[in-house]
Amino acid sequence: MKNPLKRLYDWVLSWAGSPFGGWALFGIAFAESSFFPIPPDVLLIALGLSVPTKSFRYALICSLGSVLGGSFGYLIGLVFYDSIGHYIINFYGIQEGFERVRLLYQQNAFLAVAIAGFTPIPYKVFTIAAGFCRIDFLVFVIASVVSRSARFFIVAVIIYFWGARAKRFIDRYFNILTIIFAALLILGFVMIKWLG
Predict the structure, then answer these.
(1) Phi, psi of 18 (to 5 degrees)
(2) 52 contacts 19 by C-beta, under 8 angstroms
(3) Which of 7, 77, 114, 115 counts the most CB atoms within 10 A of its CB?
(4) Separation of alpha carbons 52 and 24, rounded Å
(5) Nearest CA to 163 among 24, 55, 58?
(6) Between 16 and 66, where is the model more confident?
(7) Cα(58)–Cα(9) distance, rounded to whole angstroms?
(8) pLDDT tens, 1-37?
(9) Exposed, middle or buried: residue 142 (CB in 10 Å: 0-12, 13-18, 19+)?
(10) Domain boundaries, given as residue ranges, for the chain
């Protein structure tokens, strides 16, 4: 019987043949930056591997979705923190990390957003905190554009130049890579807790 994660991987790859693949990528990137737990990298990689010549287009879609989603997260922190924002932070159990992020913003808001946008640290915590702390919105957007675009376009470069080999590698080592990816995701949440 086929591994359920492998089936999910194959299903994600099937989006590349769908006219809605780009929209799905945009939606996941948007949601992940403000409230959703799963990063868009999985779908970005899957779509790019299916059609390597479109990898830069997918990176652009992912970047736009992520920056707009981050702006929505900023709005949640700015206007709706007491209802929605507080719930999201409590849902992930990272209240202490949220307080530490507030201190990071006082030291260097641009650097804090840029680091969070590029690393496995949950970006949504930084977007909501940015609005809550009322950091300069233009600084927030520029840092988001730089870090999120860098992250997704690095993936696109790898896929564009080494797509077929990367796909073979992923197919061969899928189970191990799944564990590594899950560990990185957990590490991101642990880092937020540690910041507190």
Answers:
(1) -100, 145
(2) no
(3) 77
(4) 18
(5) 55
(6) 66
(7) 17
(8) 556 656 656 666 677 677 888 999 999 899 988 887 7
(9) middle
(10) 4-195
> Taking the CB of residue 130, how many other CB atoms lie within 10 A of it?
30
pTM (2 d.p.): 0.77
Contact indicator for 126, 32 with CB cutoff of 8 Å: no
The token pair that represents 34 in the structure block: 């403000």
Q: Sorting pLDDT into bands at 50, 70 and 90, what band is 45? A: confident
For residues 138 and 187, what is the distance between their CA atoms, to the nearest angstrom?
A: 29
